[in-house]
Design a protein that fits this description.
alpha/beta; eight-stranded parallel sheet
């Protein structure tokens, strides 16, 4: 199967209506391993929180799967995935599965089984990569990666409940958030990530899905730079191989406007699959208008404040590098508290207005 043409992709996009969604991890899970494993797959919390999202007017969710759950409990994971897709669909939410992920901010290898408790005060303190650094760098594990991706895609390749396939989240991301509130970096493994990303496109296309496939470009220039975004080798390849343009942008509106202008030259539908971080100026009150007016789909990070602690800021140096300040009195991500009440009612009112939902 070849890459879908720009004409096909734009016709597909025109049929969707504006997509406004969120990245989902239930508030009861400290990471995606805990979300998906049988003993901690929290159906009650997931159903409740997806209901809150639907009431706000959201129409899609993006969610990471995890290779290790498939490896150890393939049938169970597929049953749980079907339950999640069906539950979301019943609420008018279409699904964007993400198959691989390099964001191991917790700084340790993923391990199947009970997950460690959160580190108090640290943003995303137990985030683990999928498949993880050691497996990524072991060529002997790659046939199993292919089997995992192809199995999941094959099950849903003609299913309209899947909006599109996001094959790999932030390939090459080496950041670790330490318990002292700083950031550090793991040794460079980006070549292996790049190779896995390219292989993932091939494996997915061999399953011939009806839905578009993509990997989001995510590397952006520093504040004050006039350089265009997405210029490293992985991002350039991701954009060249994807059916639709997806990107991440935790920046103020002026930066994001420039990113959209740059990526629009590719002539394909655009979606920002990660945004909304209040401390760096990525805010609903202005960027939702920007995305909607430019017909760019968007998936904000976070829904309900929970065990990932993503309402807390990134490390202060990383926030500063994005032009902000790590003010812990302001929620960084997330919209709702554990009871479903909005952090900022003006934000949720703006969402409802944009998505045609009557005020509550």
């Amino acid at each position: 199967m070849d890459r879908f043409s720009a004409d096909w992709a734009n016709a597909w996009w025109a049929a969707q209506g504006w997509i406004c969604g969120f990245n989902f991890l239930p508030s009861s899970a400290v990471n995606f391993l805990e979300m998906w494993q049988a003993d901690t797959f929290d159906r009650d919390t997931i159903a409740r929180e997806l209901g809150w999202a639907a009431a706000l007017g959201f129409n899609a969710l993006r969610v990471n799967l995890h290779y290790l759950v498939w490896k150890h409990d393939r049938d169970g994971m597929m049953d749980r995935l079907e339950w999640l897709i069906a539950t979301a669909d019943g609420l008018g939410l279409r699904m964007v599965p993400c198959l691989f992920d390099d964001c191991g901010f917790g700084g340790f290898e993923p391990a199947y089984g009970p997950q460690p408790d959160l580190v108090p005060g640290v943003h995303n303190s137990r985030a683990v990569a999928s498949p993880g650094r050691a497996a990524l760098l072991d060529p002997g594990t790659w046939p199993a990666f292919a089997a995992y991706l192809r199995d999941v895609v094959r099950a849903y390749r003609c299913d309209n409940r899947i909006l599109f396939w996001d094959l790999y989240n932030e390939p090459g991301n080496r950041m670790v958030f330490t318990a002292t509130g700083a950031q550090t970096y793991e040794p460079d493994f980006s070549q292996a990530s790049h190779d896995l990303m390219r292989a993932a496109f091939d494996w997915c296309r061999n399953e011939n899905p009806d839905q578009p496939i993509t990997v989001g470009a995510w590397v952006t220039p520093p504040p004050g730079s006039d350089d265009p975004p997405c210029q490293n080798a992985i991002d350039r390849d991701a954009l060249a191989l994807s059916d639709i343009v997806t990107f991440h942008a935790y920046w103020d509106s002026a930066h994001v406007q420039r990113f959209i202008d740059h990526l629009a030259a590719l002539g394909r539908p655009m979606l920002c699959t990660e945004w909304m971080a209040r401390a760096v100026g990525s805010r609903i009150e202005d960027q939702l208008d920007l995305f909607q007016s430019r017909k760019v789909g968007c998936f904000q990070w976070g829904l309900v404040k929970g065990r990932t602690q993503t309402h807390l800021p990134w490390p202060a140096d990383l926030v500063a590098a994005h032009g902000g300040a790590a003010d812990r009195s302001v929620w960084f991500h997330d919209l709702l508290d554990e009871k479903g009440q909005p952090y900022d009612p003006a934000e949720t009112a703006r969402l409802r207005q944009a998505l045609g939902i009557a005020p509550s």
